[in-house]
Amino acid sequence: MRNSIKALATAAAALLSGTAGIVQAQEARNVIIFLGDAGGLPTLNAGGILAHDKPQSLYIHTMPYVALSDTSSANRWVTDSGAGMTAIMTGHKTNNAMVSAIPSGPNGAVSPVKTLLEYAEQRGLSTGVMTNMKIWDATPAATYAHVAARKDKDSIFQQMLKPRFGDGVDILIGKGRADAVTSFAARQTTAEKAFATAGYRFGEDPAIVRDAARVAVLRDSDFAPIPAVEATIAQLAKNPKGYFLMVEWDMHTDDPKKGLRHVVEMDDMIRRVHEIAGKDTLILFTADHSFGLRMGGGERGSPLLQQYDAEAAKPGTTNESNGVISVQDGHTGEEVIVAASGPGADKVHGFMPNTRLFDIMLSAFGWKRDQ
User: Fold this and answer.
1) In this predicted model, what pLDDT tens digit does every residue of 17-26 receive, in sequence order?
2) Which of 90, 200, 274, 356 is most deeply packed, by most CB within 10 A?
């Protein structure tokens, strides 16, 4: 009886104090961000219908927390990938073409700003970057490098192997092998020697990720995404402190069918990662910017791809004039979706600046910004 009275008193006190039903927020052990490069809402919509012949048919559409993110840069209403990813990875707006650096003086001077991956490296977590673009391109570079001009691939490669925090990205998978060969040859060495000296197992086959904790896979051709991301997560998850992983997939639709196929590839990756990553993992999807794709036609009951191909086959039809899916080749400035699940995902809601994504990921880990 005495214990029952005590329990009732405790419950009553909780009700009076407003703490009843409140569960201590769980911190994430791991954070995975999927970045659909140019994957705006029109592109996601068309990609899902093209693949599944029904709206809102992507796995992304089932993720429980959703927001719309502004993508403007510090100096343009329409961002490029450098400024767009810098905002997400550092919490700072910057000028187009800059990569995890902000203007700091005259004559183009810039100052580096710390990335979430660098926070993770500093704290001993494992880190990974996977992309079907070049590994030194603006989006992946914004996770680990700091340059005033995104085209400065030599500096990006140099910083990749000489990080400011920790030992740098543990698992690198992407394109740009020929670029690496050229860049390191200019410094009188080879890509193989440079990566080996930095402690990487270097190769072209993503399967080698399963056999080493520190791997650089550089190639100049496409690769199967799901086996690569499975191997990456299996390796990163061996660290008891957790991991941070960024996965970029190109969704530019200057080639509409290729770009929309990439939408489905990334969506399938996200579905699979939800199955294997564990409940202690915050999973986010967003885009760095949108793109000038529009669905202007199409009838239900017939596969959209067939209708698009029939329209494209008409004499004089271009990507821009196709009446089913048209593309004005270029970035656009409307908001993009953020979709999330896992610890910390409830902070994804409403309209937000893209810089808030950095704080959401930082908070999910239980960390605070450096002063």
Assistant:
1) 443 333 345 8
2) 90
